[in-house]
Design goal:
The chain is an alpha+beta fold. 38% of the residues lie in helices and 27% in strands. Helix 1 (16-27) packs across helix 4.
């Protein structure tokens, strides 16, 4: 990835933290991680205005599916953004539960996904 090339995950444009997380998932594919999907669309009973109800990552580890959201430095910071996320997650989690998927876990990119080493360590912590 060059400095002016946007990172991609599974053929879709990704943020830098999403790219770091996906790189760590790839590293552990076949050991800690069975499989994963990026920008997985969830069919919900309701949708908030302006939402398309995707989860950043749907990750399978040891036969269990987990929904992961990468919260970056711009979005997800204000109280109104956090409340919007909470409401959205209620709809998404309701649909995911019917599929046997664990509830959405939000990850703070500034703390857990700063670089390849921190992303690698974080994936190990999550799926060990």
């Amino acid at each position: 990835m060059t400095s002016n090339t946007k990172p991609t995950v599974q053929g879709q444009v990704a943020s830098a933290p999403e790219y770091l997380y996906a790189s760590a998932l790839e590293k552990y594919r076949g050991s800690l991680v069975d499989d994963y999907f990026f920008q997985y669309r969830v069919q919900t009973s309701q949708t908030l205005p302006g939402e398309d109800n995707k989860v950043d990552f749907l990750v399978k580890s040891r036969g269990i599916w987990y929904a992961k959201e990468v919260d970056g430095e711009i979005a997800h910071k204000t109280m109104s953004q956090k409340e919007h996320d909470r409401q959205r997650d209620l709809f998404v989690n309701e649909a995911l539960k019917k599929l046997g998927v664990e509830p959405v876990e939000r990850m703070d990119a500034e703390i857990k996904l700063k670089d390849f080493a921190s992303a690698d360590e974080f994936v190990q912590e999550q799926f060990r």
